[in-house]
Amino acid sequence: MFGKILNIEDAYVTLENASHKLDANYLNFHVVFPENNRAVVGEIISMNEQTIKVFLVGEINNGVFTSGVIKKPNFNSTPRLVYKSEVELLLGSQDISSKDNLYVGKSVNYEGYNISADINNFFANHFAIIGNTGSGKSCGVARILQNVFYHNDEAMPVNSHIVLFDAYGEYNNALSNINNLPQMGYKYFTTNVQSNGDLVNIPAYFLEVDDLALLLNATSATELPILEKTLKLVYIFKGQSSAMVTYKNDIIAEAILDLLSSGRSSTQIRDQVTAVLTRYNTKDINLNTPIVQPGYVRTLRQCLNIDNQGKMNAVQYVVDFLEKFQKLNLTTIEVDKSIVYDLDDLYYALEFALISEGMLKSEKIYDEYSQLKTRLQQIINSDNKKFFAPGERRISKGEYIKRLFMGPKGKVQIVNMNLNYIDDRFAKVLTKIYTKLFFDYATLLDKRGSFPVHIILEEAHRYVQNDNDINVLGYNIFDRITKEGRKYGVILGLITQRPSELSNTALSQCTNFIVFRMFHPNDLKIVSNISSNVSMETIEKLKSLTSGTAIVFGMAFKLPLIVKIDLPNPMPKSSSLDIKSVWYDSEN
Predict the structure, then answer these.
(1) 60 bridge partner residues
(2) What is the pTM of this model?
(3) Domain architecture of the chain: domains with CATH
């Protein structure tokens, strides 16, 4: 069949078609160019009656296949089809019950052969699963996760921690049976506040400055100091100890003094001081606090009275009274971190942080920063508040994460969070806050990588984007994890139908890819740029792949391969709409 080598250009070899026959069955089969101490391997990508075009993919040395070609084959090499004994070198181990191997599916080109990945190379690296809607992507994801738990006879992955952010609530049906396996566990959380199921929940006291910035859609890094002060104030205002009461007095006194020296009209100052002390007060500083002067006593409210000349003649007595309180440096204050607080407490603290920062001195600045307060109020007034319920007792983040992966039988390996019932913006915030929570926990462990967490994001293009986080926070949590997460055991799995909308950084750090049918030119271009050992002819095949068929490539695979992934059992609820059955159902 193969004649002499006619031409070698880049990674392409043109062979003479010695038989002058066309046989489509040979397309995508592999050709070996044997030499003295090695063999170069290529894939047949096209042929006509005169020539056969081969794309070079790797080398076999001492019985081991290595992707990539260092040296092109000699022109005097005699090419041949790959032997059966060599096929396993290319497709991966056929022992799919071994814990070393991840069974992916069946080879399309080599009948009777399985395609497997090195499980360490796959799950120790970030990965992306890409494909248009209806391409079999959800079924493929479900099946691969099932394979992790159902295809291993040696041992079960008892110490795995997989968090699946399920955009449509598709995977519960496919994964819940894992609970029936020995030593295995599965948990399901929902964002449907009307259901009786367990709600997705992050206690409000877990929210750090960066989390609040995400939650409140901060648009500038200049807003972060306000949020930092809010988190300090919430402990002070919520605390009941004598020290906390002293802090409250000092903070309120300073805020009122700022208002009194703001240079505004007497009427404006009186109204603002009255408003602040109506909401923020203690037994020592309130509108009815007695201001004692020689010969008479007036309340603080009375000292704010305005005479017929438009002046507050007694205001200096208020100033003298307030200046007795200490001016605090919040950065040096030690607060009781065992306090439990909710979003209402945060709102109270945020409102005062805006006032105490002198925002009332400038209406423009106050209006700009008060958008944070408005957004927090909107969350408090919505069902989304329920996702931040603090519970009765404060727990640590470490305890929270350990509880998350515990069930009635013991350890839980998969946690499914159904995000179907919240809007995309809020879902994006939740995924970032959770992802940061896991990453921060992993980075603080004494033994690096001892608690691996795999974060799998369905419809990842909604969350992992080139957004404004880098300008506000100085980083994007998904980008940070794709660059730093591997060494701490925090791995991202990106499932998307629009790779062109993903963060460039995050996608560039993915090492393994499973790509289903795709059409859009921008998405095809992204895929073609991902790997140098995927030929353009292979990229073109993406347009015509049948549902459930994918091209796999990356560190965990020997070379780019076409695989037919088995249907999951049970199936996810992701099947396409059957218009005919709905339109013509007379009983409905």
Answers:
(1) 39, 65
(2) 0.90
(3) 2-91 (2.40.10), 101-199+396-583 (3.40.50.300), 209-384 (no CATH)
